[in-house]
Amino acid sequence: MICLGSLIGLSACKSQQSGSSSQPMQTTVLMKGEMCGIEKAQNLLIRDLETFQSMWETYGKNQMPAPKMPDIDFATQAIIAVFMGTQSNGGYNVSVAEVAEEGSLLKVKVTHTVPGSNCLTTMAITQPFQMVSIAKPAASEVAFEVNRVVNECK
Fold first, then answer.
1. What is the pLDDT of residues 70-126, one digit of tens each?
2. CA 12 to CA 86: how far, in whole Å?
3. Are 116 and 151 in contact (CB under 8 A)?
4. Which of 48, 102, 126, 154 is deepest in the core (most CB within 10 A)?
5. Which residues pair with 120 in a beta bridge?
6. Calpha distance 131→139 (Å, rounded)
7. In whole angstroms, what is the distance from residue 137 CA to residue 105 CA?
8. Strands annotated E in the chain
């Protein structure tokens, strides 16, 4: 599934563009974990401090003391934040697998890893997430492609 989102991740479906060459982008992991205050699955491209602060308030709402917000220079950087939403147990993971610019489109591949039926998992509610920084893209649109992977524990 490929969905097109606004600069802060509101989504509407769009077909893939063809004929453009893709330029891979380097990512730097800012944060990754299993617990946060984001309860619904969502994928965001954050280009400004105001949007980041708003998301951060929700992200840290169930943590005491509230986590310190990373310093980001939004003149030169942007953040991709992916949230898997609330899961009923452990064993879930979300990660940004690949980021590439293709003309006016920023393509972000996200991997959702879920536990297979043979996996032993914690009996705790989790909210898997990852935040990465990238060089501020020139692309005006973003498309998130989410791939689901089942971890078959042995």
1. 999 999 999 999 999 999 999 999 999 999 999 999 999 999 999 999 999 999 999
2. 22
3. yes
4. 126
5. none
6. 19
7. 9
8. 2-5, 11-13, 23-24, 28-33, 42-46, 77-83, 93-102, 105-115, 129-135, 141-151
Q: What is the mean pLDDT of residues 9-15?
A: 34
CA distances from 11 to 43, 112, 113, 115 (A): 9, 18, 22, 27
Round to the nearest angstrom and report the end-to-end CA distance of the chain.
29
Alpha-carbon distance values, 39 to 42, 91, 140 (Å)? 9, 17, 27
Tokens describing residue 10: 């509101």
Instruction: Say yes or no to pLDDT of 11 above 80.
Output: no
SS3 for 53? helix
User: What tokens were used for 103?
Assistant: 């003309």
For residue 141, give both structure tokens: 């649109």
Contacts of 50 (CB under 8 A, 6+ apart): none
Cα 119 from chain centre:
25
